[in-house]
Amino acid sequence: MKTRDRLRIAMQKSGRLTEPALDLLNRCGLSFRQSRDKLFCFGEGEPVDLLLVRDDDIPGLIAQGVCDLGIVGRNVLSEYQLTDGREAEPLAEWRPLGFGRCRLSIAVPQEMAYEEVGQLAGRRIATSYPGLLREWLRTNGVDAGVVTLAGSVEIAPRLGTADAICDLVQSGGTLVANHLREADVLLESEAVLAGPQTLPVDERGDMIELLLKRLDGVMQVRE
Ligand code: ATP
Ligand code: ZN
């Protein structure tokens, strides 16, 4: 990989994390000129540019060295480490960022009894997070079927393709609308600053250290 002298940060192009991530970077003293295709944003003051992509692609882009850092949900980062990134060098969660908070939870039909995880044995659970779900089932010694769906996981029980779901929950409104209730929590998530375990030993590494210092200052003010 050709070395770059400018730092490149990957973030979500359009979604829940986009505005708060940009806002946070602005507070860290970074500003960007938005290019027309909006894939790449050139940094105006500091040598830091943005790559605007789907959140699911962010861990892979860091692992490949296309980007130095990424702003992504812990849920996406952890899922990557357990699936596509299994063989790769593990990525580090450099800082929790305090926005995009949600839980990855098991939800069951309102009328289904649920006291403990063992009751999921032999059931089918629909999810977009098969890595995290399988890991949690294995840790709890439960043998259940995992049905992987890319989206609209919450309608699986009504369609009869699953008995329960494992999905992101924030307020719980979507669950109620689909006659489901939150039964167990696998992961508490929020947006994080992700990167490689070891920082590059060049100007980019120095810039990351400066950015982390500014970030800590900004986060302290917010607390
Ligand atoms: P993309 O097009 O980038 O793939 P997406 O649909 O996967 O977008 P969003 O729905 O914008 O992504 O969610 C991005 C992140 O926001 C999630 O991965 C999660 O970390 C966080 N988040 C917070 N609350 C919720 C919620 N209620 N539902 C889904 N994600 C949430
Ligand atoms: Zn996504």
Attached small molecules:
adenosine-5'-triphosphate, zinc ion
Continuous helix count:
7
Question: Low-confidence runs (pLDDT<50, min 5 residues)?
Answer: none
CATH topology annotation of the largest domain = D-Maltodextrin-Binding Protein, domain 2
**CATH superfamily grouping of the largest domain:** Periplasmic binding protein-like II
The CATH C-level class name of the largest domain: Alpha Beta
Hey, roughly how much beta strand do the residues contain?
25-35%
Quick check: average pLDDT? 96
In spatial order, strands of the major sheet run 2-3-4-1-5-12-6
Short overview:
This protein is of the alpha/beta class and 223 residues long.
Q: What does it look like?
A:
The protein contains seven helices and twelve strands. It is α/β, with parallel strands linked by helices. The strands form two sheets. It has a seven-stranded mixed β-sheet with strand order 2-3-4-1-5-12-6. Helix 3 (about 75-80) packs across helix 4. The longest helix is centred in the last third of the chain and has 20 residues, at about 205-220. About 35% of the residues are buried. The site of zinc ion has 3 residues, from loops.
